[in-house]
Amino acid sequence: MSVSFKYWDECADPEDMEAMWNHPEVRTEWTGAGETEGQRVHLSRDPDGQPYLTQTEMRAVAEIVTRRQFDKKLDPEMICAIAELESNRQPLAMGCDKKTNLITIGIMQVSPKVAEWIVREEDYLLFPVEEDPDILYKPFVNVYFGAAYLRWLSNFDGKKQFDGPSPIEAPTFPTSPVSPSKGFDLYWDSRVSSEDMEHMWNHLDVFKEWIKSKEIRGKVRFSCNKEKKPYLSRVELRAIAEIIVSKYFSTRGINPTVLCALADVVSMRFIDGNEASTGLMGIDYSTAFWLYKEMGYRAYRVDYIEDLTNPFVSMYFGAAYLAWLSEYEGR
């Protein structure tokens, strides 16, 4: 990879550096580390020598971008959580989906094709990504396009087939990585425990939505796209996130809004996941099993990979992983 950064000044414009120095927590952290305003600021490095943003720096970038370009309509915590999960806050991170050959780069793992689509179709014209895709390695640029994609997702109605070019390149909605859902699998009650179903029925917004769609207890249908791929409505997704946080993470600082945003980005709310990952939150089986066995997150069992296609199970281990990341130090 030809792109490399040693100093903040190499990956941030002077205006961005001024904004960072004007952020009180960043100023305190930088001066405490021996940095001097007006001189080049060192990027932190992990034991492997890879540059990364500290949590303070990541938070500042998210706050600055959302304040400047998105009128504070996006939650900086959501952006920070995605950066944590996608890249460990490493601006030079790069990934590749082996099935689609889709390249993702930077701190929020934005695909150049996604960024180009956003510029072309959504008129986010601040950065010339079509001319120079490598600018996506710059934290402020990457967060800008990641936030723009989140804004697009927040206006996306999953109950309608998307007719335009998909920003994640797939011409249709993702295909389940597990067995195609048929028959009883299209019902909530076949995947979710009776206890969790009771919590769903007791959630006022879910109750209203299900009654309006004429659902009956014991046989609640999942919403499906034209290819019969089951997904959650935004009301259902929000309810699951709130229930999981309330029951298991109420003292851990986990934000249901962040969990919902992650599900939107990772799986577009499809309960089977997509071609690259399993389940609503995209938590792979090995990670879920490690969290269950080694870290003590045992509210739900994960005996088989198919267990992660239960939206409550996937949400639980997604929240558990986020809780673990928020406490992990040394990166």
From TrEMBL:
Residues covered by the Transglycosylase SLT domain: 71-154
Parts forming coiled coils: none
Organism: Gossypium trilobum
Domain of life: Eukaryota
Name of this chain's protein: Transglycosylase SLT domain-containing protein
